Structure formats: C-alpha cells, structure tokens
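Project standup — Tuesday

K.O.: blocked on the structure for the chain from last sprint. Re-posting the sequence here as requested.
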Amino acid sequence: MKIGLAGYGKMGRAIEEIAIERGHEILFKSNSVFPLNQRDIDSVDVVIEFTKPDLAVQHIEMVLGAQKPIIVGTTGWNEQIYKVENLVSSNSGSLLYASNFSIGVNLFFELNEKLARLMNHRSHYKASINEVHHTQKVDAPSGTAITLANQILENNETYFSWVCEEGTEPHTTQGQLGVVAHRIPDVPGTHTVTYDSDIDSISITHQAHNRKGFALGAVLAAEWIVDKKGIHTIKDMLKDIQAV
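H.V.: unblocked you, prediction finished:
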C-alpha cells in the first residue's frame, strides 16, 4: 500500500517505521516546510494525518477532494465535525478518526464505560480524570481525556458536564466531572480515572511507554479503510480486527 503522511514529527516517524515493517511504502511526508498542498495526493492509496487542530480540517478537505481515504489522529477539531461529515458525504469519501489509535487505550475505553455504569447512582463516590503529557502537546485536555469524560457522562447519570483546569484540580459544581491536565517535560502519556470516597478509592490507569502502539493502530486503520466509504471510528475497525 502507498501511504502519504500529513505531519512528520515524532508520531509521523513512528508510523513510517511501522508501515515499512508491514510492507507498505511511504510516498510522501508533508510538514511545515513542505505542506500537503505541495504533495501529490493522487499518487497514494491513503493519507494518515497527525498535525495540529488548525490544520486538520483543511487537510481532510484536500484529501477527500482528491478522492482518497484519510486516517485522522489529530485531536481538538471536533467542533467542526458537521463540516467534516458534509465533506465526506459530498465527496463520497472515506475517513476514520480517533482520539487515540492505541489498541491498549481503546481497551481502556471499554473498561471506562463498564466502570462508569457500575458506579452509576453510587453518589458517595466522586469521579475525576487526571491526564499527563509532555509539554509539546498543544491541546489540553487531551483528546483521550475528552473521550474518557464523555464516556462517563454517557454512562453515569450523576454527571452532566465536565470542566478542565491545567495543573490544578478544577472547581466543580453538582453534576460536573473534574479533569486535570498536566504538561510536564519528557513524561509518558498517562490517563487515570478515579472514583474517590471517604472509605476508599477505585482507579484505572493507562500509561503509554512509547508511540509504537499509536503508530500500529494508525497503520491498521489505513489498511482497513481502503475499501470502505463514509465516516468511521476505531471502534468500527476493532469489530473486524479481533487480534493484532
């Protein structure tokens, strides 16, 4: 498969390594010096996009306009989801996006949903989310933390909204879920969901040791989407891929 990379930072290099290991060819790598609009999108089978929130939607528009499928790992652009849905529909295109492509994180999401349902109506427990990333991560909270928070809102009737502060516990009112985002140099990405009471605490944690899990998930998504149409999420892919 011929792959184009929109974004060639640490994540792009990790994707390149995994893609080549799996027998694929990287035809182009775009970055701030050589942007995507200067690359031959027609020459590839799929584009994998990991850049910045302010670039993601224009990249999606370019790739869909070239009638090529796109895998989007950039987070922080979801307020434009309706525009993206229209772009996919009007171009009869293919797009798969995820807040996190790690298979381990997506198993963690399943645990989070299950725990939220188990804790429903147990009002003596207070839920919170703590996420830690390196200082180069531009969005706070992370897309993964937002997914975790929204899952709790969807599966636990105690919470109706979430609020985030960077580096400190946010003030919350009844029905609000607190999210703390830490940005610290040279740390592994870590997400912890905690239910705390006067009696005890229950926590689940995912810590990424490196980028390989994210890169593998993105390449698997690129392999999966080639013959698909419409908007998909990693959950759709994982229904088909039982073992990786």
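K.O.: great, moving the ticket to review. The chain has two domains: 2-101+211-240, 103-207. The radius of gyration is 19 Å.
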